[in-house]
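Suppose a colleague, Dr. K., hands you the sequence of a protein chain of 88 amino acids and asks what its three-dimensional shape might be. Before reaching for any lab equipment, you can write down a predicted structure in token form. Begin with the sequence itself:
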Amino acid sequence: MKPSRFTEEQIIGILREQEAGVATADVCRKHGISSATFYKWKAKYGGLEVSDAKRLKALEDENAKLKKLLAEAMLDNAMLKDVASKKW
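The predicted structure, expressed as tokens, is then:
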């Protein structure tokens, strides 16, 4: 996945700017993002503080690592079952 040009702090700052009363279209134009991106960020980061966003990112990274480990373990298990089922 392509990394974002914006950090979590910047994203939350952009969302706060819109919440302060600036029109969504103006905020999007100013920062060079599409309205779809803005609303996707709002769904993910809306109502979060910077520390919460950092914690969310750390949990997502940990979850990705655990999913990878599980997939590798399941693959190893499937290979062992396949080898064990063959008769020599």
